[in-house]
Amino acid sequence: MKSLFERGPSLRTRFLIALSCAGLLLFLDHRLNTMQPVRSFLNTVVAPIQYLAVLPQQISDRVDYILTTRTELRIDNARLQNELLELEMAVQRLNFIESENDRLRQLLGSDVRGSSRRMVTEVVAVASDPFSHQVVINKGSTHGAYVGQPVLDNRGIVGQLVSVGRNTARVLLISDQSHAISLRVQRNDIRVLAQGTGDLQKLALLYIAHSTDIEIGDVLLSSGLDEVFPEGYPVAEVIAIDRNEQYQYARVSVRPYAQLDRVRSLLLLWPGNVDEQPVFEQQSDSEEANNVD
Amino acid sequence: MWIKAGLIPLLLSYLAALVLMVLPLPPLLEMWRPDWLTLVLIYWLIAIPHRVGFTTVLVLGLLTDILMGSGFGIYAIALVVIAYPVLRHFQRLRNQSMLQQIIVVGMLVLMKRAIVYELEHALNGAVFNITYLYPVLTSMIAWYWVYLLLRKYRHRYAIR
Which CATH entry fits the domain spanning A116-271: 3.90.226.10, 2.40.10.340, 3.40.50.1100, 2.40.240.20? Predict the structure, then answer.
């Protein structure tokens, strides 16, 4: 049906042109990986949208904060003081053990591990696409973030950065279907690979022989062998093992320690062996400045 | 000059749709999030097809790709493919009853999500999960309000 005043190329031609444009971009990005600069530029362009999306939450947080009463604050303060005391005691012990460990490593002739630097960051947006578990954080290349940087929360490893804009960066969660992480079992140092399943509460271990000594409740730590994640951080706990001989490998499900479904504040980590440096903002951002080792 | 009338309100509606796509929601609601961008696009394609065409669809699709972090062009392809039947039959769609429109919109959203899944499956080995199709239902329900709201909006700001 041609309308009287239709001008220019026909609908089908325009459709095919648009489709081939999109297809070409897909090809360039996926097969040739040439779109990285464009992506990082567009990431900066869409950053305002992400900030807008998180605005209601920030306002409600602010209102919450204003409405907190003095008593609540006092109770909170006392609790935090107690927690701080306990943590400080734990750190004293840790410092001692760390220096002892360094000395022992020197005696053995192996490298002393460099200390890592950290920066607190906030999540500004989540991608709702179940095929890509990603969140966007409010730190970017101006803060020294780099692609492949490990991201943690207070319980364990969350994921790694996959693209970095100027003031935002994108974190690929360990639960993403395209993400795998090298782990070891804390109890007996068996090396395993954990791949995301698209379910925030579950990862799957790959290539586990039926006879492997893994039990429900085993703690899995990052192994450091992937050279992305530093060694020794808690990642997941074994929750189910299916040793059905029908399958070539045992099916082991593990649950991440990090609360991937409610991430708000995250920690960017600069391991000791990387060249990139965190760049802290000039104004005394006490929260961040305190996190430098 | 008159054809530019209402350009800013039009852009604002796209912006609102994009923001709604990435608005953080509790995990329980997260999987029911309607496909706002597709709904808003379908409405404008039906209402003002002489202004909103494949270029708009392509640009918005690429922006969604960036926002979602999916491969560049996946959403763009899916949106362009569903824009074709809409543009082809916009006059018929305009005159359909709300129930018929809801069914058509449901099919379009289903088609879009199927294309996105197929591309993700082919390129990144994604695994299908039935929860991925829940938004089709919520999008159908949301269409009623999106349609009424955007029609009012269009008349209010004289977007022609």
Answer: 2.40.10.340
